[in-house]
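Q: I have 124 residues here and want to know how they pack in 3D. Can you give me a structure?
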Amino acid sequence: MVWTGRVISGLVILFMLFDSITKLLKMQQVIDATIRIGFPVSTIVGIGLALLIGTILYAIPQTAVLGAVLLTGHLGGAVAANVRAQSPIFNTVFAITFGVLVWLGLYLREPRLRALLPLRTRQP
């Protein structure tokens, strides 16, 4: 279970690092997507920096819960922006899926979180 959580979290971290770096480098695809969903180009670097900080915090075991909260906020904003811009449903589902994966990976790799939020089983 712990290794499954580490693999899921690792994939989330890799994707988020990639996403934040493309924003910090202001790649053309990022600029086009940002304009398409209604944000000014001047916000790209700030969003990328916030995403990078959240991802780093998520990767460090001692600050992983804080990182998960920050990444959830980022992904929630992505959902809201995509819904507002009437983007294809795939974009919204993708952001929601990554939000679930952030917490699933953390839940599986962090026994203290499992103790705090135990899954209940049916009583016979």
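Q: Anything worth noting?
A: The chain has six helices and no strands. The chain has a mean pLDDT of 93.
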